[in-house]
Amino acid sequence: MHTNWETFFGAYKNTIAALEAFSTLAVVIVSLVLALIAQRANRTRVKAYAQISTIHHALLEGQQLPSYITVHITNNGIMPVIIPFSFFYWHVILSKSGWQVNPWDYSQGDQWVPQKQYPVEIKARATQVFFLSERTYSDNEMRTVFAGANFIERCRFYFIQARIVTDDGKVFSVKLSDSLRKSLRELLAAAA
Predict the structure, then answer these.
(1) For a surface tag, which of 19, 50, 164, 191 has the fewest beta carbons within 10 Å of its beta carbon?
(2) CA–CA separation, 77 vs 94, rounded Å?
(3) Would you report the helix, strand and coil content of the chain in percent, each value rounded to 5?
(4) ∠ CA 103-119-44, rounded to 5°
(5) Are the C-beta atoms of residues 104 and 112 closer than 8 Å to each other?
(6) What predicted TM-score, i.e. pTM, was given to this entire model?
(7) pLDDT of residue 192
């Protein structure tokens, strides 16, 4: 019985060496793919959505309802995410700079907005709502920015984007609601 195996291995030693090399390469590739998958699982993964939110309360009946620009940030990763104080900014295409927005919910100046202590930790698979600014205040600030723009800058403002930055330096795009995008375009048209 052993002589048959010895004859087989003797006759096909180059084939067996090639099979060994291929299996070693396959093991290395599989281990690299598994390491990449494990690394991707630990990455920061965040989704953010900005919208105009209005406060409805019985005490506000008959008055103008306060409205705010809010950002809903969802942590889709398996690790907690830290949101710093200066996490949100507006960005215009073909521009290296942007406009940072300090969050409205940092100070206790508004009775309808709960105060937050920054930095804020968002646990895995959780969502936090951040109040960026009171609507009339942000509209006035945007009018100021739009008013000083020339024709080319106004054209670029139609493609304004919002971004957030986490504490580890990762930058994520913010999806703007239709109402917020419409409001920004109306402000831009009024400034023209």
Answers:
(1) 19
(2) 30
(3) 40, 25, 30
(4) 105
(5) no
(6) 0.77
(7) 66
